[in-house]
Design brief:
This protein is 74% helix and 0% strand. It is mostly helical and 191 residues long. The chain has two domains: 43 residues, Homeodomain-like (Arc Repressor Mutant, subunit A, Orthogonal Bundle), CATH 1.10.10; 133 residues, Tetracycline Repressor, domain 2 (Orthogonal Bundle). The chain is elongated. Pfam families: TetR_C_14, TetR_N.
């Protein structure tokens, strides 16, 4: 092995996910991951704090995507429309990597500590969108409500997509879930 290996982070993430799926998260060691990736443990720890973080390394990129999409929404877009556009962009990213996303979800869902970390990640995504909305001039609590509601809709759409691999693309499921929320809110408002 040379001192520098291209795409070490991606190779480690791929190796970890494969091993977690094959032999289980608990049973997989950092040594197993680095052996599969053809890298050293030292290289692993340059990229990840622990084997759990391999499953969450895209969080900062997702936050950036969401914040940037909210910020770039048309000036006349409502807070919910800006959040919807941001979450559709994230859903499109997930759709492009559907097999990886589904495998990752299987691993995360099977372990309480990983589910807890997933909830922390989702809270961070909501906060990134809320901050971007505030920067656009949306006051609180509207910014927080729009972002948190968006994440709730995304979670429901994601589960529907995961549970039925024959469903349409995740962005389509997300749009349908958003329409369903609007129907529920309209029904409640007219009741």
């Amino acid at each position: 092995m040379g001192r520098w290996e291209p795409n070490a982070r991606g190779r480690l993430a791929q190796a970890a996910l494969e091993l977690y799926a094959e032999q289980g998260y608990e049973q997989t060691t950092v040594g197993d991951i680095t052996a599969r990736a053809g890298l050293t443990e030292r290289t692993f720890y340059r990229h990840f704090a622990d084997k759990r973080e391999v499953l969450f390394f895209g969080t900062e990129m997702a936050k950036d995507l969401l914040a940037r999409t909210v910020a770039d929404a048309p000036a006349d877009a409502s807070a919910m429309d800006a959040v919807g556009a941001a979450l559709e962009a994230l859903a499109a990213e997930f759709q492009e990597n559907a097999d990886r996303v589904r495998t990752r979800n299987t691993v995360v869902s099977a372990h309480a500590e990983l589910r807890e970390r997933e909830l922390i990640k989702l809270a961070g995504l909501a906060e990134a969108m809320a901050e971007a909305l505030r920067a656009r001039g949306t006051p609180d609590p509207a910014a927080s409500l729009a972002a948190e509601t968006g994440i709730a809709v995304f979670k429901v759409a994601f589960v529907r997509w995961i549970d039925d691999p024959g469903r349409p693309d995740l962005p389509d499921v997300l749009r349908a879930s958003t329409r369903e929320l609007r129907t529920v809110l309209t029904e409640h408002a007219s009741a």
